[in-house]
Amino acid sequence: MHHTIKIIIIDDDQTIIEALTEMLEIEGFQVESHLRADKAIASLNKQSSAVILSDVRMPKMDGLSLLARLQELDNELPVLLMSGHGDIPMAIEAMKEGAYDFLEKPLQPAQLINQLQRAAEKRHLVLENRKLKENIAAQTGLEALIIGESADIKNIRQHISSLAQANVDTIIYGETGCGKDVVARALHQFSLRNKGRFIAINCGGISESLIESELFGHEVGSFTGANKRHIGKIEAANGGTLFLDEIETMPLPVQIKLLRVLQERTIERVGSTTPIAVELTVIAASKDNLALLGEQGKFRKDLFYRLNVASLTISPLRDRPEDILPLFHHYACKASEHFSKPLPTMTPAYLDHLMQHPWPGNVRELKNAADRFVLGINETSLASIKREDDMNGSYEDRMEQFERHILGEGLRATNGQLNEAAELLDMSRKTLYRKMKKHQLDKQQFKSHEAIGQE
């Protein structure tokens, strides 16, 4: 129960007020009482940490008019109405108009206390969520990009402010999904090069044969299939920032060429000997310790020293629990905008579930969880899938069925939009196609009727 939430009793009978006040104070509630509804309304505002417990039949203003006035003031303020038997039709009408609950007189103490506790919990969550939203809205600059309340994140924000001004080559360390790219973008955005381009390349996502041409560009005819000149990522980032993600996977021969670029600040396209001058800041990201890889001969030490003018480490989400709820709230708000769906209520049990989860996939996993939360896809577990023959069948069969079920949920939630479904299920579009083919799923069967007209 939240002791910060006050119970406001409105009843024109002083003896009822006294009896209720005594009972609720024994239960640990804070109580305020009013004999007149207008007086109670005057004491309330949108920020009130309060739950209203009011009689339906009162001189000057009945329960319905009181409810209408309170709904105008704040439609998320819980109003519980007490009604004698004859007033039940009015109380039912009030429930339709948005009352939290009605209780028939004579009141059952256990039921009343239970309902008040639930209403107080709800009010507490509404006010907390509003506070979080206001904080996010009030945050300017860095706080809006690098979200979190932990000492680690505050420290990173401070580092970004000073590093961005210095425009130095930087290494960002952190586990997969920690948001190294977000930190890199912030370093660019707050730097003097922010008018230039931010060019990102994932060294792990490009084959060894292509990475050179991707980074340095090539001239026509420099290799089979090179039928037009290609400007590489380094040249494209001239005047801005080049972000090299998963640099630990960069092949050693390419590392030597990159080192030369960093030393001489010139590049040569593949198939050309003309040097092109480049001015840029290089930010590299790695999930492994590059100094250690250097010792093991898996990463060039000279390149490491060259890049390591400054470094930042983002700790995993499990080590900074204070960031879980602000981040979840941020991504849930974004998802509700993106999918044009209302933000569902976060129950205390759900918030607790978020706090208990170890988040092995870090912020990326949290963002996916926020997307699923807004779309109403429940976290599935193997056990929740019913089979006609009740879970007999081989491990493979059950896994197949589980996979099909998850694909179906993702496609249904996104109305068969493959790009969105792939993003939601955290897989490439290619993998999604392949798996849909395997399970003979057709995107048309997941389109809801209203969505078809909007395509």
TrEMBL record:
PROSITE patterns: RESPONSE_REGULATORY (PS50110), SIGMA54_INTERACT_2 (PS00676), SIGMA54_INTERACT_3 (PS00688), SIGMA54_INTERACT_4 (PS50045)
Keywords: ATP-binding, DNA-binding, Nucleotide-binding, Phosphoprotein, Transcription, Transcription regulation
Residues covered by the Response regulatory domain: 6-120
Signal peptide from the UniProt entry: none
CDD domains assigned: AAA, REC_DctD-like
4-aspartylphosphate sites (modified residues): D55
Source domain of life: Bacteria
Residue ranges constituting the Sigma-54 factor interaction domain according to the UniProt record: 146-375
Protein name per UniProt: Sigma-54 dependent transcriptional regulator
Organismal lineage: Bacteria, Pseudomonadati, Pseudomonadota, Gammaproteobacteria, Oceanospirillales
